[in-house]
Amino acid sequence: MEGLGTKQWNVPYVSAEAGKCLLEYKYAGNDASLLYIYLWSPMAEYVASCLPPWIAPNVITLFALFIRFVTDCIVAYYAWTLQGYIPPYACYLYALGYFSYITLDNVDGKQARRTGNSSPLGLLFDHGADALNCVLFTMTVTSLFQTGKNWQLIAFFVCVTMGFYTATLEEYYCGRLDLGVVNAVSDGCVLMYAIGIVSAVFGCGVWTAVKFHGYTLVEILIGVFVVLAIVAILQNYYNIYKCSPRFWNVVTNSAIFFLVMGTFTFHLTMTSLSNFYIRPMVLMYGCMSCKLLLHMMLAHISAQTFNPFRFPVLFVCFIFIGYFLAPGQYRLKEEYVFWPVFVYSMGTYVRTLVRVATEVKHALGINVFIVKPTSAEPAATAVKERADNLDHAKSK
Question: Of 126, 167, 143, nearest to 279 (Cα)?
Fold first, then answer.
């Protein structure tokens, strides 16, 4: 695997041994949320039953992410700096887009099992989309909250990405991920819908205008969110501690992610750039955290050792740490440093996505966006046989 100091840029991410482990991988996990059991799961089952069997699960995942991207772009058009007037229709579209994403995120798994196309690649694709969604909805929710560049943005972004990272870390070490009766995925999404609807009905200014005991609504909500996130993160680490005999490795595998979040906080605090750069900055550090998550999930499904020491991630962090620690007279203009590093970070993230997807699909012998030809044939044959038997019985 690509690691720190690796000169062989074309070293495969999936070795021959890892490819064999991919073929043997079986997903293990459970969602005990009552909302999931009695609402989201039955709804997804119904939607999946309405879809033709030739629609690949990964197409559903990509379409769901596309919906989120479009609705987030509409909000970004009005509030690029995470501040500014956002018309009600954009808020409604955000809520509808997020609802569609969560629904389709459940549908893709149902469609995979219904058509016999469940695979480690689908799991990797689904987790990758969820990780990127965390970055996108962070920017949109903070736009609705009108946070701009302040501690609320930092707290929300760090808690969202860290919560997803530690949950994935638990899945890597424990071999499964069990979501509780109340969890951020199935229950927290209701709050995300509500934020969009409230913003549409009362205007985005309501979050900073309404106060309780001197604190604005946004301060209260983010404060509660931070507390709940800390509880969930500590629960993840406790579960890992019970599963892993070498907890020191867990600390090491978390250190680089903490470095990314710490650099983001340091950068946002020290930057002299205008608020125009906030979104690209969040996207840059968000994609670096997504890159770490992608490598971790690949290590999990292929039974490899997770290596968090990735040159692109460390390069992005140390470039900006070095820039702000250097004496002022030796610095270039910050935008001259920011844009090349931003383009590099986006390029290396996309490159990793393409290479991992390509290597995993070759190892499994499947297509990314096309269902296996045999998956629909048994079902069609069974239907035909049942019809033939019925006709035969009627003829008697």
Answer: 143
